[in-house]
Amino acid sequence: MNHTGYFLLPDGRLRAGWRLLIFVIFWVVIVNLLGWWLLEYSRHGQPVLAPLIHLASTAFVTWAMLKIFDCRPFADVGLGLDKGWWQLLGCGKLVGLATVAAVSVSLLGIADVQVTSVKSVNSSPMLAILTTTFLLVLAACFEELLFRGYPFQRLVEGIGATGAVLVSSTFFGIVHWTNPSASLLSTTNTVLAGVVLALGYLRTQSLWYPIGWHVAWNWSLGLAGFPVSGLDLFDVPWSAAGPPATAWLHGWEYGPEGGAVATVVLIGMAAMLWRCPGKVGCPSSPNRY
User: Fold this and answer.
1) Which of 40, 44, 168, 283 has its CA 20 to 30 A from that of 73?
2) pTM beyond cutoff 0.85
């Protein structure tokens, strides 16, 4: 391999590793340039701007990378609106709801979790639910575009599907380490959730499936009265909680994602997706770093 071979593929494009590095640098610069604006408006009660700016920044950098370095349209990242995209989105939502149902039923049965009535502090609970739902959709789209979008797909192109799933899911878990009440088990479960989401993309070649799963998981956990990744998202007049003695099962203040029940369910989901037939590679032919 000559010196240019360390940087370029036979077709003249940069190797996947260099494109990934450029994406990361570009993304960090864009997010930090917008950071001061985000901070200023967040102080004035504009919480919607945080996920909106993160999503817009990630979408812009993804579009620029695909346009400049890959000569491909934005839809090729897995957000095409061709026939069947809404079915993948709906399927992801249904599977996400089913996964939460499996976790919830298990918690009610073996961890002594109970749903109790509490006084809601919000005078308009429906408006609060709609607002939170909108924020969850923005956050899920942002995280899927960042962790299962262009960077993940370049990892698949460079080191293969297995390595890409492990690397991206590990980073997905690490960024949730600073959440309130996070623990080693909650981080492990977040890594497992990342594996499930990454496999969902690989099997469908679409981000619509993991976006649907991600939204449904967070939304249904929060609406059921559980904390979601250590955060109390929904202001609803009920709460789901278990006793301290079984905190290792239900996750206590972090929510079910911090408990062993979720570990078992997520491992089962990952195993099912791993064994499912379907696509695995990226739209472009794999090329090593």
Assistant:
1) 168
2) yes
